[in-house]
């Protein structure tokens, strides 16, 4: 019984060896765990065991004096060889991670030793064989403990045998009864088991009482079987010398049975180990996926040293190896990095041409120092290893890593075929798990990063910003918008716009540094998180960013001018000390960016901005209901023909009286409604009201046209002409009494879409007018293509005619241009008699403005028509209204 209890390698007082221990005849081997072993406690325990063994050996030696003769000199070497052979033929079974159980046959020479040798000879043979085995296996750190355990085992065995002999014969005779030999033999594994369980307590390892009892019972059963075989064989041979072949056959059969049982347990244990390693890698991948996006781990991408150290330790325990090295490359751009379980490596980073690193294929290679070529022998010596199992981890011909197992400790013969098979299967599982983990990491990276710029996207930015905001760190969120993205996309295409976005992202990253989280939100909008910065510092950073991003962008052979707007938001004083939602800060920064459109290009968020946009939000959400509730109405502003002062028509203008906000200016709510996609509902409402108004005038004998403003979105709606035609038929209004006014910039923004719609409307007989002419693109080529009937001079030019010769020249030019194209020219913004007379002198056709009338409700318009116009008979029994001067 050469090994009782725990056995580890020599690692010094502060580093217990990780090797699993061995024990005889089913004795439990002690686990080794770097985090639980207390060397000082175990040293005290070792001293106690060794002292107790020496004292007990002396006492039993005096109690059972030596009565042999010199003729028995050969018994001691034979017994020592028998003990050594029984241990080497042992069957090692790893019961669980860190605990091994060796089924050996040391009880057989022990029980025979009771009959053929005195106590001192058996003790010496056992001690020499046990210590010699430990030294041969290079186990030096626990030799003293095991020597003490050897002494107590043999001493206890002979003491119990002596007591049983005394009980049976009444005296200590030279020949022991077989009952005494059997009892003494069973005492040895029991003593070893009790010492091992006590060592577990000393090492502060937990073991349930039921587990300890179950293990002790199994040990006693195996010991009883071995002792019975040895005892039966001795008794048979002692009485019938020719019976030794039969005893040998029984011994061989028992050995085969043990080995078969060992293989069965090993297969079960290997399956559990494979499952454990796969689960460890999967859990490690899940934990890596749970980390915030953009955070760097210990090394590599998503690698945690502690997690992979646990995996390496599990593989080491399973193979009973002195050391296991995992060399992983989880990022294709990184070099391999190693995780070591067991003895530290003399050389942490082997050379690139190391023969154990550049192995072809994906199968396990077994190297022994005594059989290797010089190149491999040098690599093993650099690792301080006598033998090694090495297997590459590959997936789709891509090297993910390498697993190395050095120096098998739990078997005298080193790594065997089963170890090679286990490591190969485990490596296959590990490579698959690593590949799945890398795929998961790639998917996670893609989910949290913008594919164009490589920056974080909105979900990734939310993940990164959540932790500092949760920890109540002083943080400021910046939002940066470039206002040239859509223009470049329309002019040069999306590929060039993407190049500008990439260039802008690089400028952002260079200006802010690699440690600042930066995200691309959408289009040419970016966000950044400044940690431990005050709003004043954030303002300075924002100014620098705007200056950098507003610099011209070289695009191919062009240079594109750009303009950047930056808004920033920090937690308000009331929110300091409270967790703040990153989405709330992003929204506030967006509000600040929108507020920059007033001219100031860098602005910080203030609560009043939020109130403005909340008002806009309420307007948009309540608009449809306001249409149904009658809060929205249509007013009309008359238009008069200048040559004859006749009322030619009116322009329909929308008005909204909100129950909470009061009268809302159209310049405020119309853009908001248009941006929210509700302009179609507004246009249909105004059109219906205007057509019904014209129908009433027709019923009264008045022929007055009405003008309705169109939006860019109306000109992109292919169904719009059909709905207009249906409305005209339903109400019964001639199409020539309906005028659609559209802005020059609205038509020119996408003439390819607008032209077909305008042609359909014009084909219906509807009058088309270009509003605010002179302020948009002023594309005469497109103006000639448009099927329009009128142009309206923008009121800014009309109001400035009296004081600005330039405005006067613009108005005269528009009048002449319109007449040359056969168009009716309408001037809006006429507020003075001088302007009216100038326009009349230029030949302008129609005037509209406060000089004639402000926009009026239906009731006031009717009163205005009656008070300020004279009705004269016209053609087709209709009346014509002439303005009274």
TrEMBL record:
UniProt KW keywords: Membrane, Transmembrane, Transmembrane helix
Annotated Pfam families: EAL, GAF, GGDEF
Region (Disordered): 1-33
Claim: Membrane is one of the keywords in the record: yes
GO MF assignments: cyclic-guanylate-specific phosphodiesterase activity
Cited InterPro entries: Cyclic-di-GMP_PDE-like, EAL_dom, EAL_sf, GAF, GAF-like_dom_sf, GGDEF_dom, Nucleotide_cyclase, Rev_trsase/Diguanyl_cyclase
Domain EAL stretches: 616-869
Biased composition (Basic and acidic residues): 1-14
Entries under SMART domains matching the protein: EAL, GAF, GGDEF
Gene3D superfamilies: 3.30.450.40, 3.30.70.270, EAL domain (3.20.20.450)
Domain GGDEF: 473-607
Residues passing through the membrane, by range: 44-65, 72-91, 111-136, 143-168, 180-203, 215-237
NCBIfam families assigned to the protein according to its UniProt record, in alphabetical order: GGDEF
Protein known as: EAL domain-containing protein
Lineage start: Bacteria, Bacillati, Actinomycetota, Actinomycetes, Pseudonocardiales
């Amino acid at each position: 019984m050469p090994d009782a209890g725990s056995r580890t390698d020599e690692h010094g007082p502060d580093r217990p060896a990780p090797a699993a221990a061995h024990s005889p005849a089913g004795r439990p081997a002690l686990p080794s765990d770097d985090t639980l072993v207390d060397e000082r406690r175990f040293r005290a325990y070792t001293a106690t065991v060794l002292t107790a063994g020496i004292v007990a050996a002396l006492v039993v030696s005096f109690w059972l004096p030596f009565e042999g003769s010199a003729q028995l000199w050969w018994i001691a070497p034979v017994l020592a060889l028998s003990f050594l052979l029984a241990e080497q033929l042992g069957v090692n079974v790893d019961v669980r991670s860190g605990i091994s159980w060796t089924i050996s046959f040391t009880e057989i020479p022990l029980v025979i030793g009771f009959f053929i040798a005195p106590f001192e000879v058996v003790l010496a043979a056992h001690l020499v064989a046990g210590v010699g085995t430990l030294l041969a296996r290079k186990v030096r750190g626990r030799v003293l403990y095991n020597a003490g355990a050897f002494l107590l085992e043999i001493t206890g065995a002979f003491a119990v045998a002596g007591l049983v002999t005394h009980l049976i014969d009444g005296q200590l005779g030279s020949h022991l009864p077989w009952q005494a030999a059997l009892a003494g033999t069973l005492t040895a594994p029991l003593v070893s088991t009790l010492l091992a369980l006590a060592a577990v307590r000393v090492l502060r390892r937990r073991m349930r009482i039921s587990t300890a009892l179950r293990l002790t019972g199994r040990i006693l059963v195996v010991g009883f079987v071995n002792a019975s075989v040895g005892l039966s064989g001795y008794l048979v041979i002692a009485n019938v010398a020719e019976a030794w072949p039969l005893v040998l056959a029984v011994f061989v059969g028992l050995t085969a049975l043990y080995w078969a049982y060992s293989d069965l347990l090993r297969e079960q244990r290997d399956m559990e180990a494979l499952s454990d390693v796969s689960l460890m890698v999967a859990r490690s991948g899940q934990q890596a996926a749970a980390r915030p996006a953009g955070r760097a781990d210990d090394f590599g991408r998503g690698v945690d040293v502690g997690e992979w150290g646990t995996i390496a330790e599990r593989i080491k325990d399973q193979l009973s190896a002195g050391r296991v090295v995992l060399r992983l490359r989880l990022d294709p751009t990184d070099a391999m990095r190693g995780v070591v379980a067991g003895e530290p490596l003399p050389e942490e980073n082997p050379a690139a041409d190391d023969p154990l690193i550049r192995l072809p294929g994906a199968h396990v290679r077994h190297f022994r120092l005594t059989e290797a070529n010089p190149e491999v022998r040098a690599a093993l010596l650099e690792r301080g290893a006598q033998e090694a199992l090495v297997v590459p981890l590959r997936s789709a011909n891509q090297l993910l890593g390498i697993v190395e197992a050095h120096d098998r400790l739990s078997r005298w013969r080193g790594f065997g075929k089963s170890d090679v098979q286990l490591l190969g299967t485990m490596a296959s599982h590990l490579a698959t798990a690593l590949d799945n983990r890398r795929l998961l990491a790639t998917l996670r990276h893609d989910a949290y990063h913008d594919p164009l710029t490589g920056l974080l996207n909105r979900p990734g930015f939310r993940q990164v910003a959540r932790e500092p905001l949760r920890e109540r760190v002083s943080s400021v969120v910046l939002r940066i918008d470039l206002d040239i993205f859509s223009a470049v996309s329309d002019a040069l295409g999306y590929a060039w716009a993407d190049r500008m976005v990439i260039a802008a992202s690089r400028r952002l990253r260079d200006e802010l540094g690699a440690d600042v989280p930066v995200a691309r939100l959408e289009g040419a909008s970016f966000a950044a998180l400044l940690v431990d910065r005050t709003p004043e510092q954030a303002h300075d950073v924002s100014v620098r960013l705007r200056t950098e991003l507003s610099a011209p962008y070289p695009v191919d052979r062009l240079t594109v001018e750009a303009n950047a707007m930056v808004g920033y938001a920090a937690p308000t004083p009331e929110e300091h000390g409270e967790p703040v939602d990153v989405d709330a800060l992003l929204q506030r920064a967006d509000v600040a960016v929108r507020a920059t459109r007033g001219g100031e290009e860098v602005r910080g968020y203030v609560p009043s901005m939020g109130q403005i946009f909340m008002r806009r939000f309420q307007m948009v959400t309540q608009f449809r209901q306001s249409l149904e509730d009658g809060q929205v109405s249509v007013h009309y502003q008359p238009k008069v023909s200048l040559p004859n002062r006749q009322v030619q028509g009116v322009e329909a203008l929308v008005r909204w009286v909100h129950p909470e906000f009061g009268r809302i200016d159209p310049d405020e709510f119309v853009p908001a409604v248009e941006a929210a996609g509700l302009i179609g509902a507004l246009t249909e409402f105004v059109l219906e009201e205007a057509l019904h108004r014209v129908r009433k005038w027709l019923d009264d004998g008045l022929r007055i046209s009405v003008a309705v403003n169109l939006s860019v979105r109306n000109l992109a709606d292919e169904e719009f002409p059909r709905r207009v035609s249906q409305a005209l038929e339903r109400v019964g209004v001639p199409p020539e009494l309906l005028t659609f006014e559209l802005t020059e910039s609205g038509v020119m923004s996408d003439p390819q879409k607008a032209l077909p719609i305008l042609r359909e409307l014009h084909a219906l007989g509807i009058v088309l007018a270009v509003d605010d002419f002179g302020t948009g693109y002023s594309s005469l080529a497109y103006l000639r293509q448009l099927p329009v009937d009128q142009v309206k001079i923008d009121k800014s030019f009309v109001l400035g005619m009296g004081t600005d010769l330039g405005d006067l020249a613009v108005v005269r030019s528009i009048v002449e241009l319109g007449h040359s194209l056969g168009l009716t020219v309408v001037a809006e913004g006429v507020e003075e008699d001088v302007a009216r007379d100038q326009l009349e002198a230029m030949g302008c056709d129609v005037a509209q403005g406060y000089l004639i009338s402000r926009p009026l409700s239906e009731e006031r318009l009717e009163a205005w028509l009656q008070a300020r116009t004279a009705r004269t008979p016209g053609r087709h029994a209709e009346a014509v209204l002439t303005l009274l001067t």
